[in-house]
Amino acid sequence: MLNIALCCSAAMSTSLLVNKMIDEANKQGIQIHIWAKGVNEIEAETKDVDVILIAPQVKYAKKQIEKRVSPIPVIEISMKDYGLMNGKNIFNNIINIMQKS
């Protein structure tokens, strides 16, 4: 099971992206648990987290989050993939990064 926390500004606009990422994981036969939290809530959500995704609107907080959640990988979602809600690209990027580490 891959546990993913998605950090965005208020955790309201990401439900479609979460669903698309779950669909892609299911297609690949990978079990995931993914949830969205606001940038001010993400630290409390790090128990059992394998990776934290950062939405483009909160990338300003990446370094600060990395310091607080180390050694959990913190990955930025590209503006293009986020805007297009491209769950497939985002999920595949996570898998590639996790396999390298």
UniProtKB/TrEMBL annotation:
Domain PTS EIIB type-3: 1-101
GO molecular function: kinase activity; protein-N(PI)-phosphohistidine-sugar phosphotransferase activity
Pfam families from the UniProt entry: PTS_IIB (PF02302)
Name recorded for this polypeptide: Protein-N(Pi)-phosphohistidine-sugar phosphotransferase
Keywords: Kinase, Phosphoprotein, Phosphotransferase system, Sugar transport, Transferase, Transport
Residue numbers bearing the Phosphocysteine modification: 8
One of the GO biological process terms: phosphoenolpyruvate-dependent sugar phosphotransferase system
Entries under PROSITE patterns matching the protein: PTS_EIIB_TYPE_3
Domain of life: Bacteria
